[in-house]
Amino acid sequence: MVNFDASLKYIGSYGKYQKITYYVVLALCLTCPFHQLGSSFLDAEVDYHCAVPESRAAERLPNETECVWNYSIPWERSTEGGTWRYTQCSRYTVTAYELGNLSCPYNALNITRNDTRPTKGCDGGYWYDTSQYKSSIFMEFNLVCEKSTLNSLSQSIYMAGVLVGAIGFGQLSDL
Fold first, then answer.
1. What is the model's pLDDT at position 1?
2. Which domain of life, per UniProt (predicted)?
3. Which of 64, 75, 83, 81 is nearest to 109 (CA)?
C-alpha cells in the first residue's frame, strides 16, 4: 500500500500552481449568484395600467392626471385585499374632446358599477409606477397583459441554458 503522506512530499502539496488555480476558479464562481439573482431586480413587476394618449391632446394640467385616469380607465376590485384599483389591461374609448371638457374632480367609483361605455385594450401603451424601480425588463418590453407569460418564459429559458451548460461543459471538462 502506498503511503499518502510520502507521495505528497514527493509530488509537492499546495504550491503556486494550486493557489493560482484556486483563485481563478473562485473568481469565476463569485459571478454566478449575481446571474442567478439578477432577474429578481432586472424583471421586477410594478403596478401599471393603460396610458391615455388623448390626455396630451386635451392639454389637461399635470395635477389633473388622476381625474383623467378616473374618467378613462375602469376600476376593479383587486384580488388581494379587495381594494379598488385601475383595471390594468383595458380602458374606456375616450376622445380628446371629452377629456378637454371633463370637469374635475371626477369620482369614478360611484359611476364604475353602472358604466356602459365601450372599453378597448391598451393601444396607447402603458403607465408604470416608477416610485420603487426606475426601469426594468418588465417595463422596457411591456411584459404585461397578453405578454405577461414571457416574463416567466425568460426565466425558464435561462434555467434550461444553465442545465444544458452544466451538463455539456461538465462532460467537456472531463475530456
1. 61
2. Eukaryota
3. 75
